[in-house]
Amino acid sequence: MNSIPVMELHSSTEINTKITNTTCPYCGVGCGVTATVQDTALGRKVSVAGDVNHPSNYGKLCIKGSNLADTLGLETRVLHPMLGRKQQREKTDWNRATDLIAHKFQQCIDQYGRDSIAFYVSGQLLTEDYYVVNKFVKGYLGTANIDTNSRLCMSSAVAAHKRAFGEDIVPASYADFEHSDMVVLVGSNTAWCHPVLYQRIMKAKAQRDLFVVVIDPRFTSTCEAADLHLPILPGQDVKLFNGLLQYLAQNGHADQDFIAAYTQGLEQALTHSQTESSIEDVAVRTGISLEKLQTFYEKFAQTEKVMTLFSMGVNQSSQGVNKANSITNCHLFTGKIGKPGAAPFSMTGQPNAMGGREVGGLANMLAAHLELENESHQQLVQNFWQSPYIAKQAGFKAVDLFHAVESGKIKAIWIMATNPVVSLPDADQVKRALEKCEFVVVSDICLDTDTTQYADVLLPALGWGEKDGTVTNSERRISRQRAFLDEPEQAKADWWAISQVAKKLGFSGFDFNSSHDIFVEHARLSAEQNSDLEHRAETPYFRYFNLKALSDLNATEYDQLEPLQWPVWTKDQPDGAVARIYTRGQFSHADRKAKFIAITAVNPVNQICSEFPLVLNTGRIRDQWHTMSRTGLSANLGSHRAEPYCEIHPHDALKYGVKDGELVEVKSKWGNCILRATVSDDIRRGQVFVPIHWNDQVASDARIGKVVNPVVDAISGEPEFKHTPVMIHPFYSQWQGVFYVRQGFEKIVQSSIENTVWWTKITTAKAVRYELADRKKFTQTTEQLKELLPFQDESFEWLNLEDQTAHISHSVVLKEGHLIASLYIAPKALLPDRDWVASLFKRERLSAMHRKALLAGQPMSMANNEGPLVCSCFKVGKNRIIDTIKEKNITDEKQVTACLKAGGNCGSCLPEIRGLIKTCQMEAVE
Question: Which stretches make up the 4Fe-4S Mo/W bis-MGD-type domain (predicted)?
């Protein structure tokens, strides 16, 4: 079932229902989604559920996917092409906009050469968009200056795969986690970042004796159900896995037959890792106890079926490629690859990072897994495209790309579906680059992001629910992402926009009428001078990436395409036949052998010092995605971790004078941020953790990218997001406050509120909430507040309470019995419960008791205080869960679900619930 219209009758009102199977636009798990659109006389309603037939998730969705319908509004969208930077924007039409782009590009080529133009694109693009833009840039503009934000999350894994296997391949599938006897999660908070796959692993663990190891500097939600947590020091992964390789060699755990038949380079790898021959030394260097290290090494050695899932904690490093190869070395040494339940597994961050790799989305790649700097590969692609030019050398990778923009080497740049002013390291450098750039084009769905304000041309792209094509997830599974909503106003597909500019530059080869046309061409290129495994010897260009059987799909077959994994050699290929690659050896190198990579462990490039004595680690949180342009629209997704925060160990907090819940400045030599301190034992001393999501649209000073170390891996170009030397200081303010304003009124107060020194903007169900702080003393009288908050006509009713001696000021604004706004200035401990205030905006009218409570800033009864939200699906707070655990003597998270429903939908909160159960049990023992 792909897109089925259904007619229903309900209460004499006709309901048109359309059900569409598509895919989730968030992480690399690639979950199938069923979208239901109902059109009635009262309007349109969209609901989202997991696709029970999709093999990536079998109906499961995380909290982000479950709330996709909240993100489909057009309020924040760019819906027309626009010219001019933010302050001088004017609407235009597509013809004028594409004329200008083509003219500027041709001007740059004529004056400065082809390499003066660059593109920066995204793993949010569909494969068809990705293919067309890479064809245009590398085959027609003739430059490789196109990179993608996937550079920031998985390019180290790509380089490691190519070094070890000869091709960028994840050699296993999700089903292998269900066959494994040991799962090692390295540098991955899987429970929060890939929750559906994590729940799959946890289900396998519950059914049999699956041993789970988590290697992470922090104790995260993923660690709650782990059998072993190794709290490694940042940057020491190579030391750990080189040590494992030495342990395996010293204790006779080599698979000699596999090594002899299918590998090369073992002797050099063992020689380079000899400094890790002492397990005691490895324990000291990694910060892991000798006992835990011994347990991990023994368990890996003695377990035949081991899956090692690695993610951003490995990739985002100045040693990311070597980290990944130190993992593959251990699997090759023991033959733990190409077998059920045994493989290294790179988990990508974005929904189509793998699809981007298929079409050569990175600056050092050609399409169809061909080599950019290989002359015969260049010729193959150029002949296939019949293109006038072909890129012959690697272009600038992401960080270097924006340095080239700032230095003037790049004169024009087109940014698609990404927000580099937030997401790149040393992000203020990106700001400087775009400010100076002669010509900036941005294609986006959002009118206002930190990046769109620098656009000379802003183009309206299609969003999820509107665009049509394919994506490839982390297990090489291609799925259709189908449109179920009409294109809004003048928004267009990214491939269409590129094609229009290409035609205006006089290029043929871009007469695509649909995503189907593009996909078929993409599939044909994958099969060009390629073969299946049986005929491998007959072609010099063999690669496993091959979609030959899909290269003649008609439009109907494409529309009905079911999820499948590549390679797709034959049409009658059984489902799951290629789920596991390298089952017969047959690696992708010309000699068909995998390569051990000789690696020497080194420390991170920038070390801590007296000026910057702490290590900053960055990453995602459970309910948000990248820079919040989509998830930030959902009130449900803003309730779990509402504010940007800095997690710090209690001893460091004491040492640097930081208090839990107060504001703290995090500073590096590249920049600084102001965040809310969260004091926690879950992080090691000497380290701090900050989420990546907040930007200048939702917070005054929480864009952590401007603090992050811009050093990159010398091979992959992936930045070091996990190891930035920083200092922290308390951020003292004269007052703190919280301000709520009903949705629809927020724009008239926005400039006034955002004049405070520090603020964070949070979406709730009916209102926008601002957390505020300032270093200036709060001295406004009621009359001055009325000037600040422009609800001045007689239709607004004001309630005020002031106590200057206690530094308290409460103001409430009503209109016709509805709560319009509330402002509380008070010592932090006396500020009201945020969820309680938000709940009052949902009421039709406020009673006299509610008015009194609002003015007092405290509910008349605290009996229903849920506390911080844990389960976003069913709105269950920490206090209610703890009370239930204690009252019913609960020992298992399933009992909590039975009592409160918490954890019974997406399961993202189950690790947190397990942690609360453990805490309650420890308190009972004490």
Answer: 17-76
CATH number at residue 202: 3.40.228.10
Shared domain check, 706 and 649: yes
What are the distances in angstroms from CA 299 to CA 189, 193, 846?
A: 21, 26, 62
φ/ψ region of 688 (left if φ > 0, alpha if ψ in -120 to 50, else beta) reads: beta
User: For residues 602 and 674, is the Cβ–Cβ distance under 8 A?
Assistant: no
Q: Can you give the CATH number for the domain in which 716 is found?
A: 2.40.40.20
Question: How many whole angstroms separate alpha carbon 393 and alpha carbon 721?
Answer: 27
Closest by alpha carbon to 419, among 455, 457, 394? 455
| DSSP secondary structure letter of residue 832 | P
Q: Are residues 884 and 798 in the same domain?
A: no
The Cα 488–Cα 79 span in angstroms is 7
**What is the sign of the dihedral through the CA atoms of 431, 396, 470 and 97?**
positive
Q: Are residues 775 and 873 in the same domain?
A: no
Q: Is the pLDDT of residue 435 over 60?
A: yes
Q: Is the pTM of this model over 0.90?
A: yes
Q: What pLDDT, in 10s, does the model give residues 871-919?
A: 988 889 998 999 999 999 999 999 999 999 999 888 889 988 999 998 8
Tens digits of per-residue pLDDT, 174-192?
A: 999 999 999 999 999 999 9
Is 663 in the same domain as 810? no
Which residues is 772 bridged to in the sheet?
737, 759
DSSP 71: G
Q: Given the structure tokens 């690859």, which residue do they identify?
A: 337
Sign of the C-alpha dihedral, residues 896, 898, 899, 903? positive
- Total domains in the chain come to 4
Q: What is the mean pLDDT of residues 89-93?
A: 97
The string of pLDDT tens digits covering residues 96-132 is 999 999 999 999 999 999 999 999 999 999 999 999 9
Are residue 887 and residue 850 in the same domain, yes or no?
Answer: no
Whether residues 667 and 692 fall in one domain? yes
Tell me which of 714, 730, 746 is where a domain ends. 730
Distance of CA 836 to the CA centre of its chain: 31
CA terminus-to-terminus distance, the chain: 56
DSSP code of 567? Answer: P
* 1, pLDDT greater than 60: no
Q: What's the pLDDT tens digit per position in 819-843?
A: 999 999 988 889 999 989 999 999 8
Token pair for 250: 């010293």
- CATH number of the domain encompassing residue 910: 1.10.10.1100
Bridge pairing between strands 687-691 and 645-648: antiparallel
Among residues 833, 856, 879, the one where a domain terminates is: 856
Instruction: Report yes or no on 530 lying in a domain.
Output: no
C-alpha of 20 from chain center: 25
User: Are both 170 and 293 inside the same structural domain?
Assistant: yes
Q: How far apart are CA 130 and CA 114, in angstroms?
A: 20
Phi, psi torsion values for 122, nearest 5 degrees: -155, 150
Residue 913 lies in a domain: yes
Burial 840-873 (b: 16+ CB within 10 A, else e): bbeeeebeeebbebbeebebeeeeeebeebbbbb
pLDDT digits (tens, 9 = 90+) for 211-266: 999 999 999 999 999 999 999 999 999 999 999 999 999 999 999 999 999 999 99
The range of the structural domain enclosing residue 790 comes to 735-856
Specify the DSSP class assigned to residue 141.
I
Amino acid identity of residue 812, one-letter, is V
